[in-house]
Amino acid sequence: MAAPVPPPVLAAAVLRSRGIDAVIIGGTAEWLHTGVGMPRDLDLAPAPTPANLAALTDGLTALGASPDHVPTADVLARTDVRSVPTAYGPVDVLAGRGRDEHHLLTAQAHTVTVLGVGLSVASLGDVLRLRHIHGYRPTRVAVR
Fold this sequence. Notes:
Elements: H1 7-17, E1 22-25, H2 26-34, E2 42-46, H3 50-62, H4 73-78, E3 82-86, E4 89-93, H5 95-108, E5 110-114, E6 117-121, H6 124-133
Parallel strand pairs: 2-4
Antiparallel strand pairs: 1-2, 3-4, 5-6
Helix pairs in contact: 2-6
């Protein structure tokens, strides 16, 4: 029997199926590489184009986020990090990381197919680098 897909991964699949260009980073990316632990939220580094950020705001609403909690594309374009509560758990939009590193993260990313949707997942090296920068410890399996 296959292991259940964690809600943050399902959220990523929904957003990608809506055409949103974003690289998964953080604990969900680590889980997609190792299968260890259970991700609590979805961390995304979105492509910083106005059209993509507008699609992301619509996508967050599709994930069940209250319109009061969904920032506009203009706000995302000026924000570094915005956490949005959704029916799948928190989605942390790291728009600053998207502006600064989306092209670099994409170049090293892997595609992981979940429920028929190809997700762009940061390389394990990038995941560990970013977790270290932000003070998070990787899982024990990820560092073996």
